[in-house]
Amino acid sequence: MGSDHHNIRLGQILVVCAPSGTGKSTLIEMLRREYPDFGFSVSYTTRAPRGQEQDGREYHFVTRDVFMEMRERGEFCEWAEVHGNFYGTATAPVEAMLDQGRDVLFDIDVQGAKQLRKTFYKGTFVFLLPPSRAELVRRLTRRGTDSGESIARRLTNATGEMRQADFFDYWVVNDDLDTAYEELRAVYLAGRCKPVLRPGMLDSILDTWGSDG
């Protein structure tokens, strides 16, 4: 009878951070493709949509005034200013997904990750690293969306972010994409097995011992 509780599991928070140009979006998309049941935290932002981005899909696009009102009401579990724009994550929908046993993936910056740790301390925090500065410059240049000034700013920001990498539970170097993905995937699956996310499992199994226990 206790076996009914074996599969009861709370959702896991998986936080993935990386300097711009490291390949984070590609790796996250690969993970979501393999695990389509992932709950994804759609952040609020004050920046304008880019390309084919749609409101409510990539981000909730709001005005600065609306964002500040939400922040003052304490609706964000994390928020940060990045490159002159504000980004934030609402707490309520995340908690609802976790209670339903859904894992939630966060694609945020280092500032946001540090705030998030205070609210969701049971989460798994991963930092993606480029193999070298030269390779990061090559990737930022190749995508052709940033000016020279923008690339220089992103490199400066990358240096500051990487110096905070000790905050994270795991490091994954994105040199070879397939290898990096296998490591990220392994971290995610290991995180799902944390005892704190499986309340009652041990007692449920021990109950099968009966009086012999």
TrEMBL record:
It comes from the Bacteria. It catalyses: GMP + ATP = GDP + ADP. Residues 11-189 form the Guanylate kinase-like domain. NCBIfam families: guanyl_kin. Its EC number is 2.7.4.8. It is an enzyme of class 2 (transferase). Essential for recycling GMP and indirectly, cGMP. It is found in: Cytoplasm. Belongs to the guanylate kinase family. One of its GO terms (molecular function) is GMP kinase activity. Pfam families: Guanylate_kin (PF00625). It comes from Pseudodesulfovibrio aespoeensis (strain ATCC 700646 / DSM 10631 / Aspo-2). ATP binds at residues 18-25. This is Guanylate kinase. PANTHER family: GUANYLATE KINASE, GUANYLATE KINASE-RELATED. PROSITE patterns: GUANYLATE_KINASE_1, GUANYLATE_KINASE_2. GO terms for cellular component: cytosol. CDD domains: GMPK.
